[in-house]
Amino acid sequence: MEQHQRAYNFNAGPAALPLEVLKRAQSEFVDFRSQGMSIMEMSHRGAVYEQVHNEAKQLLKELLHIPEGYDVLFLQGGASTQFAMVPMNLLAGGKVGAYVNTGSWASKAVKEAELIGETQVIASTESDRFMRMPTAEEIVAPENAAYVHITSNETIEGTQFATYPDTGDVPLIADMSSDILCRPVDVSKFGMIYAGAQKNLGPSGVTVVIAKEELLANSPKTIPSMLRYSIHHKNNSLYNTPPSFSVYMVNLVLQWLKERGGLEQVERDNQAKAELLYGTIDNSGDFYRGCAARDSRSIMNVTFRLADEELEKAFIKEAGEAGFVGLKGHRSVGGLRASIYNAVPYASCEALAQFMKQFQQKNG
Ligand SMILES: *Cc1c(COP(=O)(O)O)cnc(C)c1O
């Protein structure tokens, strides 16, 4: 069979995976570590799977320099289930869940929390159409806050926190689904970080939770077992059957990141990709218009617009014919979006910048 060329994949999630990882998975797909079966076919209670599971945990700790006193969980249900699990586990009576509303995903987190307990939106950029992130000074935790919840990168709007707020003794909780591992982060500043895997970590099916053990240990006994952090923490995320193939793929992605030189190098590469695309937008004399405020621009999701929707439609159609995938903005905001997660090669961004210039020459 002829080798089909890899698409220029700018999908928002599930998203591009490193070609090296896919090939490695392919090479050990049928017979994993000489067991005569694939990883999907073996017991999650056996030594072989358990090793993969613990390797992934260890690598994540290494790459993010996760301090002592934190645990890493592999859960299911996506980041969307965390929107509910966070308040179910951590929002005790008399306390308030404090939320920073920065866009589509933060709004969903607020909506779920409101079903469960007392919530308060302590900062919002809705009046700026969510096109910027709040400054650290805008975020002040109320005295009775159980936690402060932020969304580090708004995948749909294309905004990202440049610096994180300091919430003192109140645990800071971040939904990092679309920018985890895109740059180094000081985990000790956070009570909890969670992320669905399918943007920057691997395939869908597993959700990573990194949290201080004290936040994981005391889940109320009134909530179902599967929704209690304490159950998963006590059982090394093996209380029930884990999403074993997804965890295995995450492990391969983490190895790939380590081989690339860790998160400092990953950040440099991501910066270069983002600068290339934002530069193309900014140097287009208003033909392309960046959506996000400059100081809030995401290095993961580049959102931009053209003069009108007709032109945007033409752009998406011609880009599709030229091999570019996933450039249509989310249906809720329109426009265009290039998601340039860790696994998207610089060469794909170069090809896109080239295409954008050609499209402008023809239509400008
Ligand atoms: C994609 C995304 C989610 C939803 O993730 P699921 O795994 O589909 O539940 C939540 N938050 C952010 C920031 C996202 O990008």
TrEMBL record:
Catalyzes the reversible conversion of 3-phosphohydroxypyruvate to phosphoserine and of 3-hydroxy-2-oxo-4-phosphonooxybutanoate to phosphohydroxythreonine. SUPFAM superfamilies: PLP-dependent transferases. Binds 1 pyridoxal phosphate per subunit. Belongs to the class-V pyridoxal-phosphate-dependent aminotransferase family. SerC subfamily. Its cofactor is pyridoxal 5'-phosphate. It catalyses: 4-(phosphooxy)-L-threonine + 2-oxoglutarate = (R)-3-hydroxy-2-oxo-4-phosphooxybutanoate + L-glutamate; O-phospho-L-serine + 2-oxoglutarate = 3-phosphooxypyruvate + L-glutamate. This is Phosphoserine aminotransferase. The keyword Amino-acid biosynthesis applies. NCBIfam families: PRK05355.1, serC_1. L-glutamate binds at residue 45. Homodimer. Its main location: cytoplasm. Pathway: Amino-acid biosynthesis; L-serine biosynthesis; L-serine from 3-phospho-D-glycerate: step 2/3. Pyridoxal 5'-phosphate binds at residues 79-80, 105, 155, 175, 198, 240-241. Its EC number is 2.6.1.52. It is an enzyme of class 2 (transferase). One of its GO terms (molecular function) is O-phospho-L-serine:2-oxoglutarate aminotransferase activity. It holds the Pfam family Aminotran_5. The modification N6-(pyridoxal phosphate)lysine is found at residue 199. The gene is serC. Residues 8-345 form the Aminotransferase class V domain. Keywords: Amino-acid biosynthesis, Aminotransferase, Cytoplasm, Pyridoxal phosphate, Serine biosynthesis, Transferase. It is found in: Cytoplasm. It comes from Paenibacillus profundus.
